Amino acid sequence: MNRPLTHETVSSQATIFRIAARRDIVAPMTDEDLIALALGLPEAAEGSHFGIRDFRVRSKIFMTLPGPDFCVVKLTPDQQQMALATLPQHVAAVPGGWGLKGSTRLLHHGADRETIEALVRQAWRNVAPKSMVLPEG
Predict the structure, then answer these.
(1) Which residue, 137, 107, 114, 126, is CA-closest to 31?
(2) Is domain 26-127 given the CATH code 3.40.50.300 in the classification?
(3) In what order do the strands lie in the sheet with 71-74?
(4) Could you tell me the pTM of the whole model?
(5) pLDDT digits 0-9 by tens, 1-53
């Protein structure tokens, strides 16, 4: 189910566009960095889903780490389309039904940190209760 377009959604999507426009500095992120980023978000916890490492907020998965080459972030279909249009070399829709619902592969080893942080934080926002607030940054 798509969430209504809000100021937060527009702001987050604008951030993705700004990041996509800047390609001058690339600092690759390791799996360990990505895990630290995910676990550094409010109430984030690591778990396992069908033997795949996952990261949750209040029992809802916002990111998985299925293999060494990419992670999967839970975006809305609109956010996914924007990411696919602006970051085609770093993201891909997950094949099948999950991809149609917004699940997006993020090739974190080749993307810059700002892009990765923006997408992981957006995935966290997408599943976190509205009463929880994620500080900007």
Answers:
(1) 107
(2) no
(3) 44-49, 52-57, 60-65, 71-74, 103-106, 91-93
(4) 0.79
(5) 444 444 454 455 555 555 554 544 455 788 999 999 999 999 999 999 899 99
